[in-house]
Structure formats: C-alpha cells, structure tokens
Amino acid sequence: MASGARVIIVGGGFGGLEAARALSRAPAEVLLIDRQNHHCFQPLLYQVATAALSPADVAWPIRTLLRRQRNATVIMAEVVGVDPGRRQVRTSAGTHDYDFLVLATGATHSYFSHPEWAPAAPGLKRIEDATDIRRRILTAFERAEAVQDEAERRRLLTFVIVGAGPTGVELAGALAEVARDALPGDFRRIDPASARIVLVEAGPRVLPVFPDPLSDYARRALERAGVEVMLGARVVDVGPDGVRLEEGEIAAGAVLWAAGVVASPAAGWAGAEADRAGRAVVEPDLSAPGRPEVFVIGDTAAVSSEGGPVPGIAPAAKQMGRYVGRLIAARLAGRPAPPPFRYRHEGDLATIGRRAAVVSVHGLKLTGYTAWLFWSLAHIYFLIGLRNRIAVALNWAFNYVTYQRGARLITEPAAPPPPPG
Amino acid sequence: MASGARVIIVGGGFGGLEAARALSRAPAEVLLIDRQNHHCFQPLLYQVATAALSPADVAWPIRTLLRRQRNATVIMAEVVGVDPGRRQVRTSAGTHDYDFLVLATGATHSYFSHPEWAPAAPGLKRIEDATDIRRRILTAFERAEAVQDEAERRRLLTFVIVGAGPTGVELAGALAEVARDALPGDFRRIDPASARIVLVEAGPRVLPVFPDPLSDYARRALERAGVEVMLGARVVDVGPDGVRLEEGEIAAGAVLWAAGVVASPAAGWAGAEADRAGRAVVEPDLSAPGRPEVFVIGDTAAVSSEGGPVPGIAPAAKQMGRYVGRLIAARLAGRPAPPPFRYRHEGDLATIGRRAAVVSVHGLKLTGYTAWLFWSLAHIYFLIGLRNRIAVALNWAFNYVTYQRGARLITEPAAPPPPPG
C-alpha cells in the first residue's frame, strides 16, 4: 500500500472517481467510500427504467474502475458522520482518519417539502430506482390486461411524468416508444398504444436549459410521439392512484418523478452553509469555508463560475473532481495552488426517441436525426470499457431494428434482506 | 380472439410454454397464467448468481414468446386455488373457467422440514433468487475488505454450497472462478483467491445422475479449481453465520442451497395424491386420477416412464408439455388419444468451469475441453432468439478472454413495494 497523506473520498460517482484518478501519482493513500459497490452512468438510467438496457450495461464495480490505481482502496460502507475537528469519517465499517476529505455524495429527489409523495412517485438516481420504475410501468400494463373494470383499465394505462428537464423528457419519450412500438403485438385485451402519457411541467417550456427553438422542437417531437405535454401545470398532490394538479386530477397507473433534486446531507458534514437545494456553499477552490482540507464537489456543491451557477450535471462533477484531485496533489507536492475552479460548459444533449434529439454544443444547435446520431455516439463514447460499449450498441441496434425492448422483466424486491454480520 | 375450448395453463416455464405452443392450431382459447411476467432459462441462472450474465440475458416476457400465437392470452396473476368441480381457477385477477387445465407450476427449494433455514440459505429457482445470491456473494467480499477482525474476515471469505447436483456443482465451480480469477486485482486488504469454497453433499459422490467416471472427473475438476468437496456430510443446522454438519461447524459469509426441491402445491389443486416430494401422482397420460380434463406436468408431476421415474429437468418438462398439448388437441379434433406419455432421455450436461464440463448423451461420455465446448454450444442453442444468443455469447467471450465478470452489481431490494391497485 502506498503511504502518504490520507485522502478520503466519499462517493464513487462522476466527481469522486475523477478526484481519485487525479491523485493516482500523488504521494497519497486514497480511500474511496461508497454505500454501493458500483458506479452508475446516470445519463442512461432512463433506458434501464424503460427496459432497453440491463443494469449491468450502465454500471461498473467501483473497485474494478480503480483496479490499476495502486494507491486507491475502495470500501463499501455507509457514512454516518464526519468529525471535521478530529478529521475523521465515521462509517458503518469503522472510523477513518483523513488529511484531506472530498465529499462527492451527489443529490437525491426533492419532493418540494412533500416527502410523503416519494413512495407513489419514484425518481431516477440509482439502479434500484430504475428497476423499480421498470416494474411499475410493466406491471401497470399487465394489470390492465388482467382487470375487468374499464375505468380501472384507463387509469392503469395512464402514466404521469412530473418535470420536463432532460430526465423527464427522456423518460416520457422512451415510455411512448414502449407503449406504441414494443408492446402492442403482445397483448390481447388492451391496446398498449392507447396508453396516455402525460408530461407535467410547472414552467413555461420543456428542457429549460436549452435555447428556445430546441425546447420548441422537443415539445413538438414529444407530441408527435404521442406524449401530452402540460406546461405551466403545478402538482399539488401525489398518491398511489395518480396526481392532482391545480387544474384537476389525473388518475394514473404509475407516476414518475423528475421534478427536482436536493443535495445529500454533506453540507452539514462539511460544516458549510447550505443553499435552498441543500448544497454546500463552498469557496472558489471548492473547499469548505474555514476548512481548507475539506472539499465538496459535484451535485453536492453550490459554486459559481463566470457569474453563473455551475449546473448539476456529469461533466461539471467530473471537472470539479479533477480540479480538487489536482489541487490536493499540488499541495502535497508543495506546488502553488491552482487558480479558482472555472467551469467549462461543454453543451447539453437530450434525446426524445428514435431519430429525435436536441444538441446544443459550443453554439452548434442540432435537432432530429443528426442530433440523435450525435447523442448516441456521444453516449457510447462516454461509457467505460469495451464490453459495455458493445452491449449497449447491440441493445440499441436490436431496439432500432425490431422496435422491441430486450429487458422487459418485472422483478420483485427480494424477499429476505441479506443476513446481518 | 379465437373461440373454442377454454384451456388454462398455469405456469410459463418450459412445460407450460410447450403445452401452449402445441395448441397453436387447435380450436382452443389458451389462457396462460403466471405470477411472473417472464419465462426464465433456469439452467443458466447460476451464471446470473455469479455475475457472468444479466437477468435479461436468461429471461423473456412470456407474452412476447407467445406474441404470434393468436389463440393464446397471457395474464400475470397469482393462482389462489382451483375448483375442479366447477372447473374454475381462482386468481388474484378474478376467476376463470376452463374446459381443460394444465398445471405446470414447477418446484421450489426443499429444506428437509427446516423452512427456517430458507432466509440464511437461498436456493436458485427465480431471477430474484439469482440476484439475491449475487448480492450475498459480492457483499461477503466487500465486508471482508472493510472489516478489521481477522476471524470475521475468515468467516466472510468462506462459502458453503449445500448439495452437489448440477446446480450445486455449477455454483461452486463458478464461485471458485469469481474468487480466483475475477476479483483478486480489485481488492487491497484481502486476497479473494484465499476464499474457502466448500461443497457439502450428503451422498457418496457429486453429480449422482451421471456415470461414476464422470462424477469422479467432476470432483477432481472442482478440487483443481480450489473447491473443497465434502462427501457423506450431512447438514444439521443452517444459520446466518454458517452451517453445522454432523462433523462440526463451518462459519460462512454465505450459504447457498442446492440440496432439494419440493413441488409447488398443484397436487392439492388437481385433487391428486402427492408423493414425498409433493409431486402429483398422475395417470400414464399425465391427467389427474378421475379428472381426465386436468393435467399435471413438469417438476410438479410424479410419473414413471419405462420403469423409471421421469427426472425433474427442462427436457422432461418440455416433452410433457408437448404431449399434453397434443393430447388436448387430439381430443378437441375427435382423434384417438395418443399412447401413454413416454419420456426420452436426451442426456445430462453439467459444467464445472473454464474448459471443464461433463456430458453424458446417448452413451457418449465427454469430459474436459470437448465437453465444455459441447455444453456451451448446446446452451447457446437452447436460448431463445438472436438477441439473447448474441448477448450470452458476447458475455462468455468477454469472460473467457479477460477472466472478468460483467455483472458484478450489488443491488438492494427496492425500498417501497409497488403501490397497490
């Protein structure tokens, strides 16, 4: 094991992994702690939720990704708390001392002060969320085929997606393809293509981070795919049978949540002030105020760059991870600290479905087939390793040619939890 | 929807599917009921449990498999009971009338009158069992890496597989490969290759259905792979921390059960006598005694053919399904009933691991590389559809070349169950 400064990184997402990698040649012992054993490629999670891909296509064991980095150790444990005075992280697997701490714990769904909505409207952050959503979608069609009552059948065949950011748009578009293309031939009593898919958005347009013309295109593409887009519509209640809007109720067989995120509780651990979204307000070098040895990165950090807030997306998390890793390496080498973190926006991509996507990269604006091809190639490129690239490409080719989905499994939560000890 | 005699098939495994297909041109309305939405290729389930394959590689939606058969309807529902007098099947989705009933509900694990052992020692029948076992195996290695206590680490790195039939042998061999080949480079504090893998068998040899020399070969191949084979060893207790044998205790991080099966409760539904393994004792034409319109097939049926009992394996279930489907079709067409069911044994295959397998087919006996190649090609052949064949072949090629496993995910049971209604 390498000896040197002890760097603890909490979280094996895009930010945490980049931070670990940036320390590969530093005189440091890196300990990466995550409560799950895998890194998940969240941008494609909606494809697991809509039965196009398998969980293993978009996830990798964190320790395999750091296999060759001999100064990195990975443990799977739950962080219980941080003692910044003693410089210790308390976990379900013991207490660990650090010289530097990087908090990269990401974000989770926010239900606008209504946590009681969560069981009825899962969001999409983890592999388990994706298989949960997949189960709900497919189970609704199964129940609709089995049920006798017509009103109940209509309810079961109605799907509401709350929030029209990239995740909501991609879920709605993919769900429309499942209903219109993949399922119809398989059912006898219902017509899956008659399913009602409603995308509910409180703001005035879909994909608000994109330029206006691309938002317009995305809305029209969704509507062409058979998605009802409701703009300026505010959700006031969510329950197991549907949602209530200010304008009225929608009885639904499944409600999916893509409306808001809140940072994990790392701001408290770092002793930093939290913004409205729970993110730790950090210094320009991403350190916690008054704690130059504690850093917060990715969706957990609130930081501005060139006058605007840094968005909660994968490239931003990677850039922060790399920056902090290099900053720690510089300090350990006695080199001068790098200038403040500066975010470089690479662009925005979102897909609506078959041959329909929007791309806004460095002033380049694309829609339709070209954008879809760009989106597909970019995502294959960003996957890790040959196996997953081939697996995803194979599944997409299968999907494209046959209109089928290869992972249409309803799996139940396992009956007994793993034994303690 | 075709009209005609109402045939209800309960269970979409190998037997139930074959029965449905054999009725494709009969003047019948076929209703296939299963509590899961997918047909599972059980012979490869151990590869999901050992992280080589994804669930979707070995499972297909039942309704997709019967997509083109217009006289077949599939519903996902739980069968609550059968009323043979009224000829009705009661399910979680209403009551259904039948003219013919085919019970193909399979078998589940038997714990020798110790159902309390089940939570500590999962068996391998469903997709959920496989991901549960995968979680236990991978979690044991993760905990061993995180834990400080040496005795606890030794316990966590000990795996006990109970039962040395094909499933136990294949699990033990695959687990040895995970420990010796896939994991070592990924850990820093433990040596996964030092894991102790114990295959416990009460009988005098492994793979008892194979000829003696093949059993011997399999035992030696397992030992070469680093599996401890304990023959004539009887399990007297199983708990979350390991197993107790007559000879002493083995503290273990995971215990896997491959020792016995018991038929599902269909014997009671059919009004037939059950044998010791819970299987319905049926007539030579697989009908329930005194109920010529009720049939029991596959692992749920106890039937003899040419003086010997028909084994509980996939080819037998398929043959029974085809036989019963054709028998019902003959009756509907007013043709004479076929002669009694006659089982044709096609052979036995089992694999131990990389380039090691045993094959006993029509007097042909193979071991080693040739057997392994035969086993691999046969299993690719028996998979359904091009997508899954390519996916499995790709994963095997990846596994063969890199010694890695592509689906090393620890996934938790989803937090909230799906909403009711």
Automatic annotation (TrEMBL), chains A, B:
GO terms for molecular function: oxidoreductase activity. Keywords: FAD, Flavoprotein, NAD, Oxidoreductase, Transit peptide. Its EC number is 1.6.5.9. Signal peptide: none annotated. Gene3D superfamilies: 3.50.50.100. It is an enzyme of class 1 (oxidoreductase). It comes from the Bacteria. Residues 345-399 form the External alternative NADH-ubiquinone oxidoreductase-like C-terminal domain. Residues 6-321 form the FAD/NAD(P)-binding domain. Transmembrane segments: none annotated. It catalyses: a quinone + NADH + H(+) = a quinol + NAD(+). Belongs to the NADH dehydrogenase family. This is NADH:ubiquinone reductase (non-electrogenic). It comes from Phenylobacterium terrae.
